[in-house]
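Reading a protein record of the kind used here takes only a little practice. The integers have meaning only within a learned vocabulary of local backbone shapes. With that in mind, consider the following protein and its fold in token form:
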Amino acid sequence: MREDILLSGPVAFLAEEMGIAPSERLLAYQAWWETEGWPIALAIDQMRTPHLRQFSAQGERIDEISYPPSYAYLLSAGYSAGIIAEVAERHDLRLSYALGFITSYYDPGLYCPYTVTLSTWAPLYKYFMGQRREAFLGILTRREAPFGQGATWMTEIGGGSDLGAHVHTMARKDSGEAWRLEGEKYFASNVGAELSVVAARPEGSAPGLKGIALFAVPKERTGGGRNYFVRRLKDKIGTRSVPTGEVELRQSEAYLVGEAHHGIYYILEVLNFSRVANAVGVVAHGLHAIAQAYRFAQQRRVFGQFLVEQPLFRAEIERHYQRLRWAGALAWLSEQWLETVWLEKPPYSQRYALFRLLTHLAKFWTAQVALEAAHWGVEVWGGLGILGEFPAERFVRELMVTNIWEGTRHRHLLDGWEVLQRYNLMDVLPTLWDVRGVDPSLLEDLSVALQKPLEEIALQIEPLLGRLAQAIGQITAEQRSYSVLA
């Protein structure tokens, strides 16, 4: 482990371990976070959940999300740096995710608005050709205030993992291009956004996943007035820097994105943008957790010796750093594959299937590795680690939430297994990553298990895909190779 890299912040890690050049923009953004952003982020977290003001003095429903003025300043930094605009103008996903890595190092909750804004822009850019296309895209790509934000609302009261069974919001065709949505979204992040993409069922559509379509829902109706309502905000243990609430859609004006029968594909594309962001972001926050643990250990004297000098501490931090390094390599590998496939449309290529596999592996494994690192960081701090006045406990809170964002562990394990099996990816995996170099029996064990019924090998999936995730991450980190299919 390079201690100078660990203590230098996220840009040094990106440069030295992930091979991403430390541009002036990235260095300036990190410097801003160190001097201004992080103190503001800590203060906002301690203030807990933002406030919802539902009615004006005249009794009108306004559903205004209230944050301290410093929050707008905090949020503006990423938009001004081009975290969305650079993707829209130059398709520069790498810069966007690098800015997100830095953001999440300090505040994963704040990375959520940027992530869902990008995940709103992408399907509209690819599939929405309605009369309001340029207006909608323009809202989301401003470099200067007032910034327009996006949101991705799929989850209803039954949960988000089984969308086929739990999307009940109905869509009815109105005049012209407009539709009307009626329903509720139970876990809506970045509530208050100017434009959202929402899962709903057109009247008469098929049951299950095939009957779900994707709609763009603006905050304001064409003739004025609120287009959706916020029932309440959630009081969360972490990610307090993004308002999450329950949204009511009451004859809400909406616009169909693409073709109705392809809605589930668009939704999965939306989720994959966010899953890559989640993987990149949790590695950053886990890295910050062990960096703070290291700094504390430099000052903590135990049995006549600084903690940082003791063999058990050094072995543990080395292990966590290496696992975060491998997890980071896997996350950035999935980002590079996203760069090559994100413009594909259904039906997708085998290359897109490989991207999906990488994304499922990265989402579940990076979250696990980062949360373990943060939990160990609390142990280093001892009793101080569970006190709200010190940062150690916050790293755990934040990573507990991001561990289930965009799909729980089991969802990604089952989906990863399905894509590995359906698209015969075992035929191409050995040509891309020689995992035998770190786990000689892995390919054979995978091949054997893939021939058996799911109910027979269900308990083997997590150990097998966990080994595969670590092997690909380790190979990529050691070879510094992020190559993708030509």
In short: The chain has three domains: 3-140, 150-260, 264-479. The longest strand covers residues 244-256. The first helix runs from residue 3 to 8. The radius of gyration is 22 Å.
